[in-house]
Amino acid sequence: xxxxxxxxxxxxxxxxxxxxxxxxxxxxxxxxxxxxxxxxxxxxxxxxxxxxxxxxxxxxxxxxxxxxxxxxxxxxxxxxxxxxxxxxxxxxxxxxxxxxxxxxxxxxxxxxxxxxxxxxxxxxxxxxxxxxxxxxxxxxxxxxxxx
Length: 147
Description:
By secondary structure, this protein is an all-alpha fold. It is built from six helices and no strands.
């Protein structure tokens, strides 16, 4: 257990994730003046917790093991894939869900009485600013954890 608690890259990634998720709740509270604790477990939104986690992991591994280490290389490549996916595939899936939800609403008169199609989740991916904000949060968390 001490190995896990003392694993700085892992702790930095987890802390960055938690800070990003709490920030989402606080931003909804400030912008919309409503309490939204469900945002703690939601994907999508500002900032990207996935980007925060992978950035914190990569940067802390770079600081600890060196920028030329295999650990940093692996985490940087996989982290860049995660961030690219967040703005690409997952964002597109969210847009598709919005369109499908609109179509279902528009065509609801065609459904049998009592049939209620499930509303698809639309907040899946991220915009570029959300990913950049998450990455910066991750870098800051890693630097605090390792320096």
